[in-house]
Every structure is written in C-alpha cells, then in structure tokens.
Amino acid sequence: MAVQALPHLLSLSGALYDWSNQLGYSVGFGCCLLAVLCGTPRLRRRFQWAPLCWIGAISYSLYMWHLPLLATFAAHVGPSLTGLPTYVVYASYWIWAALVVIPAAGAMYVPIEQPGMRLSDRLQRRLKARHRRETQTITTG
User: Fold this and answer.
1) CA angle, 62 as apex, 80 and 50 as ends, to 5°?
2) CA 62, CA 101: separation in Å to the nearest integer?
3) How far apart, in whole angstroms, are the C-alpha atoms of residue 132 and residue 62?
4) This prediction's pTM
5) How far apart are the first and last CA of the chain?
6) Residue 66 neighbours by CB under 8 Å, 6+ apart
7) Which DSSP string corresponds to 38-101?
8) DSSP letter, residue 141
C-alpha cells in the first residue's frame, strides 16, 4: 500500500516545491525592489547608473532579440568551439551578448519601441480626453 502511494506523494511534493520555489523568488525580488526604492541614497545611486538605466530602457528589445541572436551564434560559431574549455565557450557567449545582442537591442529600441511608446501616449491622451468630454456631457446634459 505504501509503495503504491509513493508516486502520488512525490508528485504532490513536486507541486508544492514548484509553488513554494516561485513564491520564494517573488518575495525575494519584491524585497530587492523595496530595498532599492526605500533604501539609502548610496544604494539607490548604484541603480541609477546610466548604463544600467539604458539596459532597463532597452529591456523589451533585449528580451525579444537575445534568443534569436544567441541561437544564431550557437548555430554558426558554436560548432567551432567544440573541444575548447568550458570557460572559453561561456566567455564567448558573453562577448557575443556584449558586442552583438545588446547593441542590436539598442538599435531596435530607437526605430521601433520609441515610436510605439509615443503612439501609445497619444492614444491614451485621446481616450482620456474623449472620456472627459463624455463624462462632462452626461453630467451637464
């Protein structure tokens, strides 16, 4: 009987681990954000460093482009790295990320993301203005 229940118990512990694991990451990330927002000026200054803010600005482009560009690297350069020490392969990925992925994300940010954000701002202002006009018409009408 106990042997038959073992797979069920293991699957429950796995589900509990998955849930608690994600909760731990979420709480930890929230505490980090709280420390940055409410921490000492010295701590906040470190997170206001211009290159770090720029990475934050291009983060969506970075998210969209990192995987295809790293996959391209793995497909075309990766085979020539076989047999090299692991740290050399790992370092080459980071060099590719620094020299290709981040600049490509920055290059996509200017012609694609910035106009999209400006369009979003214009549309939101129009919707708010329309909502105000409709609200005024209803209250005065």
Assistant:
1) 115
2) 7
3) 37
4) 0.66
5) 75
6) 97, 101, 105
7) HS-HHHHHHHT-HHHHHHHHTHHHHHHHHHHHHHHHHHHTGGGGTTS-HHHHHHHHHHHIIIII
8) -
Q: What is the pLDDT along the chain (141 residues), one digit of tens a residue?
A: 544 554 554 555 555 556 677 888 889 899 988 988 888 888 888 888 999 899 999 999 999 999 999 999 999 999 999 999 999 999 999 999 999 999 999 999 999 999 999 999 999 999 999 998 888 877 776
Give how far Cα 19 sits from Cα of 12, 13, 14, 23, Å. Answer: 11, 10, 9, 6
Collapsed DSSP state (helix, strand, coil) of residue 109: helix
pLDDT of residue 93: 92
Compute the distance between CA of residue 48 and CA of residue 37 in angstroms, rounded to an integer: 11
